[in-house]
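User: Can you help me understand a structure? I only have the sequence.
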Amino acid sequence: MTRIPLILSLLALLPAPALAQNTWFVPDDFSTIQAGIDGSVNGDTVIVRDGTYVENINFNGMAITLKSENGPSTTIIDGRWGGSVVTFNSGEGSNSVFDGFTVTEGTTTYGGGMLCNGSSPTLENCTFTGNEAAYGGGMYYYSSSPALKNCTFTDNTADYGGGMFCWWWSSPTLENCTFTNNTADFGSGMHSWNSTPTLGNCTFTGNTAANHGGGMLCSDSSPTLNNCTFTDNMASTGGGMACIDESSPTLNNCTFTDNMASAGGGMYCYNSSSPTLDNCTFTNNTATNGGGGMWCNSSSPTLLNCILWDNHAPNGSEIHVFSGSPTVIYSDVKGGWSGTGNIDANPLFVDPLNNDFNLQSDSPCIDAGDPNGIPDPDGTIADMGAFYYDQRSPILSVSNLVAGQQALVEVHHATPNRYSHFAWSLHGGGPTFTPWGDAMVTAPFHVKIMPTDATGYASYIADVPVSAAGLTVWCHGTDAGTQSMLNALMLVIQ
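Assistant: Let's start by predicting it. Here is the structure, written out as tokens:
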């Protein structure tokens, strides 16, 4: 009769991790985040409630998910200047997940906000701000390959790598990350040294370096950057990016604008560095000495399908060659540049004053890229610049047109970053005169304005009344960018 109470009593005396629980809460189950890490087992999830936690934590090799309950704006880990705020130095892999925190007030020699040494954790939705270090104010990693997604590095300070320092055969991947207002002597946003990071859809803006690399510095490194943007960064050399010491970065569809330096407002190439740039745009960058767009010194960059236009410098506004032999082909360079397929013509950006560097429909850069290279996604010859002009006809579609449900209205291949009109009527198929052509709807009709994104896609969700079953609806629309009519539709509500 006493066995069951005895067993329950023994269970009550066991430490919490011995119980069969997979999700823990801080401070409910553990008073501190570090206690939650230490008290869990591999595969567990530790959820941290809102609040500011004054701690310096170490994953200690645990393959767990540590995440905030409501995101970085309400969940802060404050190191109070007591070393690295977060440490991974026990061989952690991708199953060690750090998700949804603000990391601040860390200070040390390596990695004020975070130190990764021989580890490759997964980091998502985190903000590193107000941290300091000699190397890597926001984050430092050595021989590590972490995966970062949707992370922000802002207002961090270091001698090398204000936002991030990547060293010694590290191969991190960064997706949708932002580096803003970081400062350093070298590489204020990110400093890659003897490493091969891969960046996709990352933004560097407002970073300031006393020496090389306002946005990013590559030293003996070969990073790959896809669809990245460098804006309003400053440095002595390489306002947007500096490539030194035999670096060979590869940049695809990247944009450099409004960056400033003494040499190389957009990019600075030095000491046998050979970056490869494909479909990149340099515009409105400034250098007080030379190379508003790019400075070449003992280097041989290759530019293909690029646009360099309206950059500013007293010597070589677009490209200044101090020494070296850049290869520039099938590119639009203001003032001209020798090389196969190069042109000198206004690229006709959609709205450069508001940083919209898509091409207008009559841009000379459309289909002017390498005819033997990889075609644009619309199947046509490659365009010049970071944003291709989609020549596929805009298409209007309506799906799930069912009474009592929500219909999805979509426009594909319209002019990017503009808008489309969508009109519908239950009274007939027109025609109704408009300045852009006849609309195949009869008044009275309804009109919805749908903004298009950078790919020319727009959507709208419409509630379909239950009473509308069996009715015929006529639909039409326009593409504001080309001022043309879309395809008309006549549909029966199911």
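Now, to help you interpret it: The first strand starts at residue 23 and ends at 26. The helical segments are 3-13, 33-38. Let me know which part you'd like to focus on.
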